[in-house]
């Protein structure tokens, strides 16, 4: 580099630093305004997530960007990232308490990760929350005496036993709810032991989400809906979407969404491990999609094996669903064995047609994910 080039670059880079610093101050200002919005919502009991406002704002900013020669997608990406930050900041203000005369909330399994998350959200909404874990059963009678809600979030394998053996003496009008990732069996158990309001919930996300905004919570109604409607309203204020489902339909979907998904990921990791793959080498040659795939697989093995065993072993029928997959895999493998390129292309087109409009939609969604993966690289 010549001295002139170095000097020119330095000057321009100083100017860019100045602009970035202005951006920082603007971000500070935006975060402060969002915090004020949070306080107003808290007072009025409005949900943290306002999809119409977001859509209108994004459309307007995209238009304005285009008018001054900026790619609309750039401002959309930036704003979406900022809105994610908003949800976290609004959360800190707390939430309106929908039901003020509830009495205690007892979280059975309250020291687990999901139990802690729900405890925190209920606390931020003004409820008195107590946790009851394995070693605390001797206190259960006093804790349950004035409980308005008992929320069960213990490992799937012991959920029904805990419900049957420990929760048969709740106050008559106490709401009994669970957060288990299967719904039929726990719901049946809760209906059997308790004659008051009963509801099954399944948060479709892990405990590491920073906020409930845009997350889905599945609800399987048990009995006395009017008595626990406030709880669903409370969850909506946290920003989540409530999806109502029959327990059987939910459980069937979980065979694919959870058992099959996690089992395939497990086998993928098992295969890499048994083949003794040189990961350094793979990472060096990774395309963005492969890097993303490795991230998805690798993250499984950074978590608790018990949790995944619970999910995969939760329903016997998952075995059949996974066996079907194996049969399809074996069939498809024959296509390679026979070097039958035409059949491969024919089958590819069939599946592509079957996906229909979703295929291009998924391509667009994955494009921005892949770009984010690339952005994370530092060399
Ligand atoms: C700040 C608000 O809350 C959320 C965050 C938004 C933002 O950061 O611009 C917009 C809409 C809401 O989902 C709001 O409602 O205006």
From TrEMBL:
Q: Which GO terms describe its molecular function?
A: chorismate mutase activity; prephenate dehydrogenase (NAD+) activity
Principal place of residence: cytoplasm
Where does this protein act, in terms of pathway? Amino-acid biosynthesis; L-tyrosine biosynthesis; (4-hydroxyphenyl)pyruvate from prephenate (NAD(+) route): step 1/1; Metabolic intermediate biosynthesis; prephenate biosynthesis; prephenate from chorismate: step 1/1
Location in or out of the cell: Cytoplasm
| InterPro entries named among the record's database cross-references | 6-PGluconate_DH-like_C_sf, Chor_mut/prephenate_DH_T, Chorismate_II_sf, CM_dom_sf, CM_II_prokaryot, CM_T, NAD(P)-bd_dom_sf, PDH_C
Q: Which Pfam families match?
A: CM_2, PDH_C, PDH_N
Superkingdom, natural source: Bacteria
Q: Which residues form the Chorismate mutase domain?
A: 3-94
Keywords, comma-separated and alphabetical: Amino-acid biosynthesis, Aromatic amino acid biosynthesis, Coiled coil, Cytoplasm, Isomerase, NAD, Oxidoreductase, Tyrosine biosynthesis
Q: Which parts of the sequence belong to the Prephenate/arogenate dehydrogenase domain?
A: 103-366
Q: Show the coiled coil region(s).
A: 2-29
SUPFAM superfamilies per UniProt: 6-phosphogluconate dehydrogenase C-terminal domain-like, Chorismate mutase II, NAD(P)-binding Rossmann-fold domains
- Determine if Coiled coil is one of this entry's keywords: yes
UniProt xrefs under PANTHER family: PREPHENATE DEHYDROGENASE, PREPHENATE DEHYDROGENASE [NADP(+)]
| Name of the protein in question | T-protein
Natural source organism: Shewanella avicenniae
